[in-house]
Amino acid sequence: MTFPINFFKNKKIFITGHTGFKGSWLCLLLHKLGAEVYGYALNPPTKPSLYEEAKIDTYISSYIGDIRDLEKLERTIRHIQPEIVIHMAAQPLVRESYKNPIETYQTNVIGTANLLEACRRVPSIKAIVNITTDKCYENKEWIWGYRENEPLGGYDPYSSSKACSELVTAAYRNSFFPPGDYPKHGVAVASARAGNVIGGGDWAEDRLIPDFIKSISQNKQIKIRNPYAIRPWQHVMEPLTGYLMLAEKLYSQGVDFGEAWNFGPDDNDAKNVEWIIKTICNLWGNDPTYILDTTEQPHEANYLKLDCSKAKTKLGWHPVWNIQKALQSVVEWNKAYFNGENIKDITEQQIDEYLQTFNEINQ
Ligand SMILES: NC(=O)c1ccc[n+]([C@@H]2O[C@H](COP(=O)([O-])OP(=O)(O)OC[C@H]3O[C@@H](n4cnc5c(N)ncnc54)[C@H](O)[C@@H]3O)[C@@H](O)[C@H]2O)c1
After folding, report:
1. Measured in angstroms, how far is the CA atom of residue 289 from the centroid of ligand 1?
2. What are the pLDDT digits (tens) for 208-250?
3. Nearest CA to ligand 1 atom 41
4. Which residue, 247, 299, 224, is CA-closest to 215?
5. Do 192 and 246 form a contact (C-beta atoms < 8 A)?
6. Cα separation of 316 and 247, whole Å?
7. Count of alpha carbons within 13 Å of 126, Cβ hemisphere only?
8. pLDDT at residue 361 above 90?
9. In what helix (H) or strand (E) does residue 51 lie, and over which residues does it extend?
10. How distant, in Å, are the alpha carbons of 19, 317, 328 from that of 346?
């Protein structure tokens, strides 16, 4: 199976959260594929941001608005008349969710309901993908990967808000876009659960790689909280290609694909935090040292892996870059950034390289 490069040409795609880290990569990817891209989000959540550094608003149509504002959201979608919707706007940080739980729930849960409600009222839409997270599962701290049919949960407000977003998606699908009535409504709705994403252009607080890059740029030793926590690390292009392959199937084949999907790395790429830090230090050319942050920390999961057999079997999606290659691309991207190189160019070069490898290994 090859990546459906030609499918997106001239398709109208509405992305929420386009000013964020993943949203910015997705805008550049879709722009490259010839799609008409429309984004709806608040201003970029960080300074600097990939969105501003790569001047993404010059390549797509950007609408700045709050996902909690149903009226504005509906007006915007009605005006655009998109065919495909990818919902990524969220408060995406666990530790921020401990500080601001209500805002996290309002954005992540009511925001999802608003998006689906607005989509329900605009008949041009054929495919909707809601982006949640690997953290939406009830975490049993076991060694096996979670499958899509396992119980939802979430210990902290962020994780549980994303589990709620999954439930809202399922309820809207059952109630307003029922698979049995697909010939009448013509809308297929899915959700996508991906792991810890890395890539150039992420400046979020309290994420390992952005924290590492900040420490390097300030000549400080990196402080880490939980060196033995294992996460499903993957380059940002991995889930983005998964979301687009899923969107294509929802559009072309409808309700058979209207369910939840995991997109994570292969098992041997689920590494602990210490391994990631040592490897990225080596790639950067630094001594692999860190200091432990021993201050009291809110609860975070220690062990989290996804079982992606379904995406591999039914979508033909597979991880392309192993963790070593993903970290190498992050280092190259950041070195280029510090050297003042053109950020849109370097990001697009990495997109091209990724897609080329994707097609080579899937031939
Ligand atoms: N980055 C990861 O490792 C990761 C892992 C799993 C899932 N996700 C999910 O992927 C999506 C994108 O994550 P990201 O890392 O790009 O986050 P990000 O913080 O970089 O971007 C979030 C986006 O949401 C927008 N947003 C936030 N609150 C909003 C509101 N009230 N109204 C409208 N827009 C709002 C921001 O403006 C921004 O465009 C999120 O849904 C996140 O939960 C991310």
Report:
1. 30
2. 899 888 888 888 888 888 888 888 899 999 999 999 999 999 9
3. 88
4. 224
5. yes
6. 13
7. 14
8. no
9. helix 50-53
10. 18, 25, 13
**Domains along the chain with CATH numbers:** 12-362 (3.40.50.720)
Distance of alpha carbon 37 from alpha carbon 28, whole angstroms: 9
204 Cα: distance to centroid of ligand 1 (angstroms): 10
- Considering the entire predicted model, what is its pTM? 0.96
For strand 222-224 and strand 290-292, is the pairing parallel, antiparallel, or unpaired?
Answer: parallel
Quote the crossing angle between the two packed helices 111-120 and 157-176, to the nearest 10°: 20
Crossing angle for the helix pair 21-32 and 343-362, nearest 10 degrees?
A: 70
Confidence of residue 26 (pLDDT cuts 50, 70, 90): very high
Q: Which residues line ligand 1 (CB under 6 A)?
A: 17-23, 41-42, 45, 66-68, 88-92, 107, 111, 131, 133, 194, 196-197, 204
Task: Give the residue, by CA position, lying nearest to ligand 1 atom 22.
Answer: 20
81: pLDDT strictly greater than 80: yes
Does residue 85 contact residue 67 with C-beta atoms inside 8 Å? no
